[in-house]
Structures are given as structure tokens and as C-alpha cells.
Design brief:
259 residues, alpha/beta, Nucleotidyltransferase, domain 5, 2 domains, 5-stranded mixed β-sheet, 10 strands, globular
Length: 259
């Protein structure tokens, strides 16, 4: 079995694959202060509760946008499973040409998600990942990673409004019934939520115009199910896109597939 690890700024996602099938998936909160031993205890307990033997893990692949946590999980892989983790980065075969001016600047999760989206839906494609930041990635009809756009996630926007003003309160980000708010909280919710929807649809429209044709839109990330329905174009919701992409990269960089 293959363990795929998606290390993000807010959460760490774990996926267990048996062949091409994702049989278990968990998310825990990212914590730069945790050691490999602490993360290992959590992961081994998750495996135990799922009746999965750690000895059955015969491959580990990980992508990380949190550099301090990369060696932590490399150590975990070696210590808990006796396996050297395959880390997504320069030098790995992806089968996807990266046309960024400096390919090393692209977040590993963006490449992994774009690879999985193209493998499943072809191109041209727009991948929208609703994470801590919201990323928009463009894939050409030939399967080339072209680049994209990065915007603050909606929770970051709400927190910035609260932290950088003297009188505005901290709010829960929910969809208000009306755009015209009649309280401070309702007004903030309207501005953040509907402004965010405008941002999403405008960026997608601009990228689609540059790509040409009729690009497919693939939505992923923790808030994908909430904001996908607000997209004005047809879209595909793929909550496990990064984990699927990690499996593909592992298979392309090892002789055989993990069982």
C-alpha cells in the first residue's frame, strides 16, 4: 500500500492507496512545532483504528508547502515504515512540462493537483484549489503547466479585516441572505463572501480567455464544496485531487506500483 502525504499550511492530508484505489483518507492540523515522533504517534493510531497494519505500507510519497515540516515527515517515513519518502520537487518525473519562468517557485501541491486534473479530464483545464490561499492553475491542451494566480483564502481575508481595523469585529464567514447588510457583521459577511465569489468568477473567466477554447474547471481543497456551486461555469469537484496526483507521481518514479 502507498501512503500519500499532502503537507499544507493549515492541514496535513494522509491518503492510503491500495493500487489505484484510495481506501482511507484523514486530515490533521499542521503544526510546525510537532516532531516526527509526535506525528508518527498520530498516524500510527489512525492506521490502527482503520485496521491497517503499518507493515503493509511499502511506499511513501509527499508534497509540502511548509519547508520546516518536510524533513519531519521524511524522518517519520523512515522511522515508522522503514521507507525513504519520495518528495515532490525538481528532478522527479511528472510527465507535465512546467512553463513557469522559475519552476522551483511553484508550490508542489499546485503541480500535483494540475497533473491529476489533466490525467482525469484532459486540457485545457483550470484547477481551483480552495486552501489557506486560493490558487488558480492553468493547464494547456497539451498538458503543460502554464502558471496561474494566487489569492488570499477567504478566512485570511476575514482575519485581515478584523486584525487591521480598530472597530470591526471577528466574524464567522457564512453566506448572508442579502448583499445589503443592515448590521456591521452582516455588512462584513456580505463584502467578504460576495466579493470572494466575484474574485473567483472573474479570475476563472480571465484565465479561460487566455487559454482559449472551453477549458474544464476542476475544483478541490477544503472549501471546494462550499464555493464550487458559486462558480458560473460547469465544474468538477475533486476533493482528493492532490492525493491522486501524488499517487501518479509515485508510480511514474518507481519501477512498480505500490500494492
Amino acid at each position: 500500500m502507498l501512503l500519500a502525504v499532502d503537507i499544507g499550511n493549515t492541514t496535513v492530508g494522509f491518503g492510503i492507496f491500495k493500487g489505484a484505489e484510495l481506501i482511507r483518507e484523514w486530515k490533521i492540523r499542521s503544526d510546525k512545532e510537532k516532531t516526527a515522533d509526535e506525528y508518527g504517534i498520530i498516524l500510527l493510531e489512525l492506521l490502527r483504528t482503520a485496521d491497517l497494519e503499518p507493515s503493509l505500507i511499502d511506499g511513501v510519497v509527499l508534497s509540502s508547502v511548509v519547508p520546516p515540516l518536510t524533513p519531519v515527515f521524511q524522518s517519520l517515513s523512515q522511522g515508522a515504515f522503514g521507507r525513504k519518502a519520495l518528495v515532490v520537487g525538481p528532478g522527479l518525473r511528472t510527465g507535465m512540462p512546467i512553463l513557469y519562468e522559475n519552476p522551483s517557485e511553484v508550490g508542489a501541491d499546485r503541480i500535483v493537483a494540475s497533473l491529476a486534473a489533466y490525467e482525469k479530464y484532459g486540457g485545457p483545464a483550470i484547477v481551483v484549489d480552495f486552501g489557506t490561499a486560493t490558487t488558480f492553475d492553468a493547464v494547456s491542451g497539451r498538458g503543460e503547466y502554464l502558471g496561474g494566480a494566487i489569492a488570499p483564502g477567504i478566512q485570511i481575508s476575514a482575519e485581515a479585516l478584523y486584525l487591521r481595523t480598530a472597530k470591526l469585529p471577528q466574524i464567522e464567514v457564512v453566506k448572508p441572505k442579502k448583499v445589503i447588510g443592515r448590521t456591521t457583521v452582516a455588512s462584513m459577511q456580505a463584502g467578504i463572501y460576495f466579493g470572494y465569489i466575484g474574485l473567483i468568477n472573474h479570475i476563472i473567466a480571465e484565465i479561460a480567455g487566455e487559454l482559449g477554447g472551453d477549458p474544464r474547471v476542476i475544483v478541490t481543497g477544503g472549501l471546494g464544496s462550499r464555493f464550487g456551486p458559486e462558480i458560473k461555469r460547469p465544474y468538477h469537484l475533486e476533493p482528493h485531487l492532490v492525493l491522486e496526483g501524488l499517487r501518479l507521481i509515485y508510480e511514474r518514479n518507481t519501477e512498480g506500483k505500490s500494492g
